[in-house]
Write a structure and sequence with these properties.
Number of domains: 3
Oligomer: single chain
Helix content: 40-55%
Number of helices: 17
């Protein structure tokens, strides 16, 4: 198992908080072979691999955020209000210190990331940082053990405080949902709403959206919206899908997609790189600037407009890379066109595609595809100094390839082509 939450009950000092006192435990967390709970004790100057916390607080946080942990999607630009509180264990301590371990689902897997942290006025500091992906099944098993152990211990000790009773009832409610109620709970969490604390009008809007939206895009569309923008997202999707259906034309992109070699890489960004290189090879475009065609069998129909929320960047047709995107500069427009093409040629299943700023495999793959299609790493390598890349060099390359300097910078860093410097100082 790649993730483990291990604990041993410990005696606690007398306290009016009986739920915390009865569930005090030495808790150690390991993920991806590393210790998340490695701390240095300032008083004893000793390192250890656990923290002492009431398991009740952690269990209560898990129950309160259960659906958000499994369904809510992170954003690469700006998280929704309250996202960190719903996904970081640091907010589960209730006065005790837990690691800054962020737990977010990403395309069915769970992305775990933890950082070094010296909590203010605390006797310990967390000394390790890393990240890894684990299976939902493994992590859910560990979380269920935490919650059920806390609930059982409180019941066995007859700690019938309102807090402990509430925890048990909430946990029972989660486990008694039928499949339809679970589906709604996941949809509400995608929107950033607690499914057990939602107004009837909002619940109805979520249910209607889930039923009407195309299955291939409804999760990311819902995750991109919030309670306020959901009606606009729904209206925009219906209108834009109708526009794309009338705009689809026969093109050679279907043949090119069928001719691409199967992608071997596991990571989504590497899949994007492979696909982009395969497309460039099939089109025999050399190592220079990639040009989109306005006419002919390789033309990509493209329209621009205002998207209903900042997280949504565009929509891609079902049977072609035709797309409608938000307005951008010329280089930004080229990048979105490349992302739309990457979404189309990289699909594993039929259906519409959506371009967003969300942290999912599909979006990571389309972003990597666009960067590699427009500014191939090997082409950049031949234009760079062996060691450094300054601002002028990056700007010159970005003009040559018709992309933003940020795209070039990311390619340089992600492919370890050189060390970007600014006025003699490293970016990092």
């Amino acid at each position: 198992m790649t993730v483990q939450f291990r604990f041993e009950w410990v005696d606690a000092a007398p306290s009016p908080d009986c739920a915390a006192r009865h569930t005090m435990a030495a808790l150690s967390i390991r993920a991806g072979g590393s210790s998340v709970t490695s701390v240095r004790d300032h008083r004893s100057q000793v390192y250890r691999d656990h923290v002492v916390v009431p398991l009740f607080s952690l269990a209560e946080w898990l129950v309160n955020n259960w659906w958000h942990l499994w369904y809510e999607i992170g954003d690469t630009v700006q998280q929704k209000p309250g996202f960190e509180q719903r996904h970081s264990l640091a907010f589960a301590g209730d006065g005790f210190v837990l690691p800054q371990l962020t737990v977010v689902q990403s395309s069915g897997r769970m992305h775990l990331r933890w950082t070094r942290w010296a909590p203010l006025h605390a006797a310990v500091e967390f000394v390790d940082e890393d990240e890894t992906f684990v299976s939902r099944a493994d992590l859910e098993t560990e979380f269920r053990i935490i919650v059920e152990s806390a609930v059982e211990r409180l019941r066995s000790m007859d700690a019938g405080s309102p807090a402990s009773v509430s925890l048990g009832e909430a946990w029972d409610a989660i486990n008694s949902l039928d499949p339809e109620e679970e589906e709604f709970s996941g949809a509400a969490a995608l929107l950033g709403i607690d499914p057990f604390d939602v107004e009837n009008s909002t619940a109805e809007a979520i249910a209607v959206f889930w039923q009407r939206a195309a299955p291939s895009i409804r999760e990311e569309a819902l995750a991109s919206a919030d309670e306020r923008t959901l009606p606009r997202v729904s209206e925009w999707l219906e209108h834009t899908i109708e526009t794309l259906q009338t705009a689809e034309r026969k093109s050679d992109w279907t043949k090119i997609r069928a001719s691409l070699s199967p992608v071997q890489a596991a990571e989504p960004w590497r899949r994007g790189y492979e696909l982009a290189n395969s497309v460039r090879c099939l089109l025999d475009v050399g190592d220079g600037r990639f040009e989109f065609q306005d006419k002919g069998p390789l033309a990509i129909h493209h329209g621009e407009g205002v998207t209903p929320c900042s997280r949504i960047h565009g929509l891609v047709a079902e049977n072609a890379p035709a797309c409608v995107t938000t307005g951008r500069s010329e280089s930004g427009k080229r990048f979105l066109l490349a992302r739309a093409l990457g979404d189309y040629v990289g699909r594993l299943e039929p259906g519409f595609g959506i371009l967003t700023s969300l942290f999912t495999d599909r979006q990571a793959q389309s972003r990597a595809f666009a960067a590699e299609l427009l500014a191939p790493a090997e082409s950049l390598r031949s234009r760079l100094d062996d060691r450094f890349a300054d601002d002028d060099t990056i700007d010159e390359i970005s003009r040559e390839f018709g992309v933003s300097s940020q795209v070039v910078l990311h390619q340089i860093e992600n492919h370890n082509l050189a060390k970007p410097v600014r006025y003699g100082l490293s970016f990092r």
